[in-house]
Amino acid sequence: METKLTLRLNKRVIDRAKEYAHRHDVSLSKMIESYLDSVTEDKSAVTADITPLVKSLSGVINLNPDYDYKKDYAKFLTGKYK
User: Fold this and answer.
1) Please, how many CA atoms are within 13 Å of residue 49, restricted to the half-sphere of its CB?
2) Residue 48: predicted pLDDT
3) What is the pLDDT of residues 61-74, one digit of tens each?
4) 17 to each of 31, 36, 49, how far by Cα in Å?
């Protein structure tokens, strides 16, 4: 259910917000609704569902327990950005 809301804001802020909304092809109402939804969302109730693809890939690679992936990645980056 949608309902109307009246806000009082600084004109410069409104103008900048309208320009931003126009550039991003979104309505100002939708932009404000998304913002209010994100700041009022109950973070404790949000759970991340693991997709079937991710579940199927879990445990596919068996690494040596003493493998240092950070050292290996640093070596890779050093070679890449030489």
Assistant:
1) 3
2) 72
3) 888 889 888 999 99
4) 9, 15, 34
Instruction: List pLDDT tens digits, range 10-57.
Output: 999 999 999 999 999 999 999 999 999 888 887 776 667 788 888 888
For the chain, the straight-line distance linking the first and the last C-alpha, in angstroms and rounded, comes to: 57
Tokens coding 42:
């109950």
Amino acid symbol at 27: S
- What number of helices (H) and strands (E) belong to the chain? 4, 0
Backbone angles phi and psi of 62, in degrees to 5: -110, 115
Q: Which residues of 43-77 are buried (b: 16+ CB within 10 A; e: fewer)?
A: eeeeeeeeeeeeeeeeeeeeeeeeeeeeeeeeeee
Residue 21 contacts residue 27 (beta carbons within 8 Å) = yes
Rg (the chain; Cα; Å):
23
